[in-house]
Amino acid sequence: MTKPFILITNDDGIHAPGIKHLAEAIREHADVAIVAPHAEKSGSGLSITWTKPLHIRPYTWEHNIPAWSLNGTPADCVKMALAVLLEKMPDMVVSGINRGSNSGRTVLYSGTIGGVIEAVLKGIPGIAFSYSDVDEPPVFITKKMIFPIIQHFLKHLLPAGTLLNVNFPYHLRDGIKGIRMAKQGKSYWKEDPDRRIHPEGAPYYWLGGAWGSVQEDPESDVALLEQGYIAIAPIQVGELTCKTTFETHKNFSEKTLALEISECVSE
User: Fold this and answer.
1) pLDDT, tens digit, 9 for 90 and up, residues 213-260
2) Domain range spanning residue 90?
3) CA angle 82, 6, 81 (to 5 degrees)
4) 179-212 pLDDT, tens per residue?
5) Angle between helices 139-155 and 17-26 (to 10 degrees)
6) Helices marked H in 57-177 — which ranges?
7) Is residue 251 part of a domain?
8) How many angstroms separate the CA atoms of 85 and 56, rounded?
9) What Rg do the C-alpha atoms of the chain give, in angstroms?
10) Quick check: 230 and 178 in contact, CB under 8 A?
11) In a domain, 192, yes or no
């Protein structure tokens, strides 16, 4: 039986424990290649590098897994993997395992998610994995669950333009209650800048953040993680149009705008 071919990336950098855990969970079941940032790129979202050249360096990985580091973002890594490094297209791109939750609206900032979005926009299925705990979790608890999730969604392909955002719950050593499909939550990190003074006297800031909880749907990833479930949220990025606004204003035209401008001027 032919093994699937899976590309792995992340935003914590190629040296991070999480990407090693992800590779270990997959390598016996799939052919694997790794392309990841050479340094942490958390919070980079879907950003790409335009203002400096990209340098690719081979990276020695156990079990002869082909691996490269890149001085760019996760989205850069996927772009360069597909355009330069890989001899064939992967069956799936997986990203992570991120240190810290990517629940709620944090997905809009996440480089872990950004790498998967880049794949999905090119028609390749993608899954992002994250640990809610910032401290290194007990790997043995999650290792056996990762590939079955991947395998299920290789067999049951998602609609075009859809990715999966998988978060493992807090306090994994206390046990996992189960696995649930989830809605993407609405909570997010609100800015909480830490003002400091440079030795020369000028102020500077660490952006920082405080978790801004909102009233969540019980089926949201935020709510399910707090209850101890693995939360799997499908996120659609293939269609960005607000259809309601389009239908409401689709007759808007230069003639309509000219009329409204003339009414403003006459007032």
Assistant:
1) 778 899 999 999 999 999 999 999 999 999 999 999 888 877 777 777
2) 5-186+215-238
3) 20
4) 999 999 998 766 667 888 888 888 887 776 666 6
5) 60
6) 74-80, 111-121, 139-155
7) no
8) 9
9) 21
10) yes
11) no
Q: How many structural domains comprise the chain?
A: 1
Would you give the DSSP letter of residue 42?
Answer: T
Residues 6+ apart with CB under 8 A from 29: 3, 4, 147, 151
**In this structure, which amino acid lies at residue 216?**
E
How far is residue 27 from each of residues 3, 125, 223, measured CA to CA in Å? 10, 18, 32
Q: How many CA atoms lie within 13 A of 24 on its CB side?
A: 12
Is 263 a member of any domain? no
Question: Which CATH number do you get for residue 105?
Answer: 3.40.1210.10
Q: Which residues of 164-184 are buried (b: 16+ CB within 10 A; e: fewer)?
A: bbbbbbbebeeeeeebbebbb
Q: Which residues pair with 234 in a beta bridge?
A: 164
